[in-house]
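INFO batch 0412 | record 1 of 1 | parsing
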Amino acid sequence: MRIGVDARSLSEPITGIGRYTLSLLELMVLDKSHEWVLYSHRPLIHGNWNHPSIFVRAWNIPKWARVFRMLWAQSILPYWAKQDNVDLFWSPAHRLPRYLPKSILSVVTIHDLVWKHAPETMRPFSRFLDAKFMPEAVKIADRVIAVSESTAQDLFKEVSGVIEKTEVIYESSSILTEFLEEFDCIEGDYLLYVGTLEPRKNLRRLLEAFSLVSESIRENYKLIIVGGKGWGNEDVYSIIEHFNIKKNVKVLGYISDKELADIYRNAYVLVMPSLYEGFGLPLLESMSFGIPIITSNTSSMPEIGGNAAIYVDPNSSISIKDGIEELIMDHKLWKKLSKNALERSDLFSWNKASKETLTVFEKALLKNPNIS
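INFO prediction complete | emitting tokens
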């Protein structure tokens, strides 16, 4: 069959959904029995799609024109899909084109329901779009993929009648342990945070908690913050100044995968006290390096972290502080969680996820047996 893909996330600096899309596509396109058409509002900047069975159709909408990007997705994209005789259209991120021809089967991936469970942490416009178009996409899709059981259950509570067509397919780690270059800006043991710098990630409470741990811990374990700036004016530097921990915290911003792999390799603990996650990819990335985790006791995080983590209340700086001190002071616990992390990371695989995703496409195909 000919499969169309909303590939807009491959036209932007890579983030969680971009990694998800890229990791699956790079494996799925190896299946030579299908043709693939990748659609985007801008030229693709991630992935090598130079193959006879892969076609790319891209517009060139300016980066500042968010409204035009939305209009393109609801008008030009479905028109192109019809022109290209697409049999099935896959959206890796929450929404489907409203005017996609009914003759085209559709699959949508749902990563989270932040708009429902942590709406105050989203851009108002993004919140509006997800609240309006996500339930609609789930209803009209022939099949639905949820990236965790937690996300699936959230979805079932919000949208009725979708249980039978929904399947859970876990993500995997895209940070390869072979990427072990020297990245010499950091020395010694450190705690690590990885994620976009935005309100949902709960950075303020993390930094407050770090300011409350014993001075000996702060002197011996820096806190390293990795991630690009998100929305919400999350001024990390001002928060660091406010809690008087400037000498104990290093902010690296957005870094390459090779640099990130080296940062993971040398980390002592990953600290991720998010308010809400649909999956929580940094948890899995850190586990693949044998790094124990301190994370929240909410949403999908216990499901992904399993027995490799200490769980804290994300709404309590004291709880986060206690979790840090417990793991730093108890080396036997650290060794146990490190071993569990490596073992647990083996349960997640992009190869497995890509095969399961293609199977979902084939199940959708059963609604139209004329496609061969």
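INFO post-check: The first strand starts at residue 2 and ends at 6.
INFO record closed
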